[in-house]
Amino acid sequence: MEFTTDVFSxxxxxxxxxxxxxxxxxxxxxxxxxxxxxxWGRPVASVYVRQSRYTHDFLDKNDCFTVSFYPEERRKxxxxxxxxxxxxxxxxxxxxxxxxxxxxxxxxxEAECTLVCKKLFRQTLxxxxxxxxxxxxxxxxxxxxxxxxxxxxxxxxx
Length: 158
Ligand SMILES: Cc1cc2nc3c(=O)[nH]c(=O)nc-3n(C[C@H](O)[C@H](O)[C@H](O)COP(=O)(O)O)c2cc1C
Known about the structure:
By secondary structure, the chain is of the alpha+beta class. Helices cover 19% and strands 42% of the residues. It has helices spanning 7-10, 54-61, 75-81, 91-94, 132-138, and strands at residues 16-22, 25-31, 34-39, 42-49, 64-69, 99-102, 105-108, 113-124, 146-157. The strands form two sheets. Strands 2-1-5-8-9-4-3 form a seven-stranded antiparallel beta sheet. A two-stranded antiparallel ribbon has the order 6-7. A hairpin with a 2-residue loop joins strand 1 and strand 2 (25-31). The two termini are 15 Å apart. The structure holds flavin mononucleotide (FMN). Flavin mononucleotide is lined by residues 15, 27, 29-33, 48-50, 53-55, 79, 82-87, 145.
């Protein structure tokens, strides 16, 4: 299982879709915060999700999630999936992407690469441990993000 990327730009500049749920009920959202590395001797992906996101519900209810990456021509679609909620839009049918099974979870056929992740850890970021300027900028009015760390159990390529 190998994945070669520029870890400092793959989330920040390329963006990704974070998807949780199964074929009968799932949701997806755009993310630009994330990490890849090693924890407890396992390959892991980390994502940071506000509790207000509909996808957050699916992350909590399911054991697995996927992180998927797309070619540049899908950026507009990722912009839509990152600005509208699955509570208000049928993301499965209106996004222009084609849902596809990814192990026990879901991804989209247009993905260049999908990391299939098994949840290992979840914790709400504690503002007491975050620098004050960041708390002021991001967490004055909104609840802090939840960190989810998943073991990468499979890598699917187009
Ligand atoms: C480029 C981009 C990156 C984003 N990154 C994150 C992120 O890392 N974490 C997060 O909680 N929300 C992030 N968002 C916001 C969610 O994608 C957005 O609120 C989305 O509509 C949530 O959808 P949902 O309610 O269907 O889950 C990002 C949005 C965009 C456009």
